[in-house]
Specification:
This protein is mostly beta strands. The chain has a single domain, classed as Porin (Beta Barrel). The chain has 4 helices and 17 strands. A 14-stranded antiparallel barrel has the order 2-3-4-5-6-7-8-11-12-13-14-15-16-17. The longest helix has 15 residues. About 35% of the residues are buried. The N terminus and C terminus are likely disordered.
Length: about 425
């Protein structure tokens, strides 16, 4: 009973941290397009390998990318992750630096039937919107300067339940059910010189719906010496997601505070209008080769049908399909070395290349990243995971913006095989 109480306290404390850590985890002008920057299901140990994880798993970490691989976990696992990002934006003649960070995920898993059936649930981002830009001009027919500010915040999150079931020694199947929630707020603010107020056009889309994902994994042992060839496939089902929309005009003072008679919201256009936004289906394929508890190398390919995206009005906005290619791996010199800690560390590396769904000024926006990191063993089978990514997205061609970024990931994995063992003596 004491163990269960400590487990519940750990979960509640972690959830309370979301108020302090769950800021905007990335900043990008390209998040103005569609529903923003697209997140992945990767945990920190996956990110250190470029995001690899559709076909490969291990007993010390939850596999969030393919629910079928949850069957690797034989003990209770709690994982939390934080991400920070230093990003430099540049055009042909301008540059800007931004630093962002916050809580990235909270996930928990435990075996319902050890070696057969595992259950997991958690909180993960789906998309992130975070941008701001200014445009200078003049009032038509006049000399007063007009400053237009475009700003977006928010994103879509998911609270999910996942389960993995081992059908045979080689085949496992998985299911993930997610509650999709969150709001995306976009506004355009107009300010004319020599006036004492601003006018803002505000649009807010609030999501609330259910999404489903499927997974399968198949593993073949080669030569009976702990070498395995692994295959994995995932399918996240797309479709219309329920959205509630608010639109309004606001008059604000120069401090950006509302100017509103009797504290009422002025110029309401629509409020709580029900509709939908169509999100795409995504297919993931993975293959990996490994020697258990020693090394892994693998390849993942993910295809997102973002050309199927439709906005609140039902219109296509010209997104193209997204392709993610990952190659990565890990190496542990000697997991069971008792006299040399460095040999028990797992070293990870990988690269990822994304053809994003964004098209700006008739230019495709691509993303390339180099990843590396380590997993540090702690007491009681727990792990501290560190991951880093250096990358570049976009181009300065055709008056566009290039993003050069450095990301750091910190993940803590708590493993304990005593949570559900009844004590004989207390």
């Amino acid at each position: 009973m004491q163990r269960v109480s400590k487990f519940i306290i750990l979960v509640l404390v972690s959830l309370s941290l979301t108020n302090y850590l769950s800021g905007q985890n990335t900043y990008s002008p390209y998040s103005v397009i569609g529903v923003g920057d697209i997140a992945t299901m990767s945990l920190t140990h996956n990110r250190a390998m470029g995001g690899l994880g559709i076909s490969n798993g291990d007993a010390f970490h939850l596999n969030n990318k393919n629910p079928a691989l949850l069957t690797y976990n034989r003990v209770v696992v709690f994982e939390a992750g934080i991400v920070t990002e230093q990003k430099s934006l540049k055009t042909t003649d301008l540059s800007q630096d931004n630093f962002t960070g916050g809580l990235n995920y909270l996930v928990i898993g435990f075996p319902a039937i050890r070696d057969k059936w595992t259950i997991s649930f958690g909180l993960m981002p789906v998309t992130t919107v975070n941008y701001q830009s200014n445009e200078l001009g003049f009032i038509s027919g006049g000399t007063s300067q007009l400053v237009t500010t475009f700003e977006g915040t928010g994103g879509i999150s998911q609270a999910y339940f996942a389960t993995g079931l081992k059908i045979t020694d080689r085949l496992s199947l998985g299911l993930r059910t997610s509650y999709i929630f969150g709001s995306i707020r976009k506004e355009t603010v107009f300010f004319v010189e020599e006036t004492s107020f601003q006018t803002a056009a505000v649009e807010r889309n609030s999501f609330s719906d259910i999404a489903l994902g499927l997974g399968a994994a198949y593993s073949v042992e080669l030569k009976k010496d702990e070498n395995y060839l692994n295959f994995g496939i995932t399918y996240d089902i797309g479709g219309d997601r329920n959205v509630s929309r608010l639109e309004r005009l606001e008059r604000r003072d120069l401090s950006n505070d509302l100017i509103s008679p009797d504290d009422t919201i002025p110029y309401l256009i629509t409020d709580n209008i029900k509709g939908s936004i169509k999100l795409p289906s995504t297919v993931g394929l993975g293959v990996s080769f490994e020697k258990r508890f020693k090394w892994t190398i693998g390849v993942d390919l993910t295809l997102g049908q973002w050309s199927d995206y439709r906005d609140f009005s039902g219109a296509s906005i010209g997104l193209k399909n997204q392709t993610d290619f990952i190659i990565g791996g890990s190496w542990t010199p000697d997991l069971f070395a008792t006299s040399n800690y460095l040999k028990r560390i797992t070293y990870r590396a990988g690269i990822n290349y994304k053809q994003t769904p964004y098209v700006a000024n008739n230019q495709d926006i691509n993303d390339f990243g180099i990843n590396f990191g380590v997993t540090l063993p702690l007491r009681n089978l727990s792990r501290l995971n560190l991951g880093f990514e250096i990358g570049q997205r976009g181009t300065t061609d055709n008056n566009l913006i290039q993003e050069n970024y450095f990301k750091a990931f910190l993940g803590i994995t708590v493993n304990d095989n005593k949570w559900f063992i009844r004590r004989k003596f207390d």
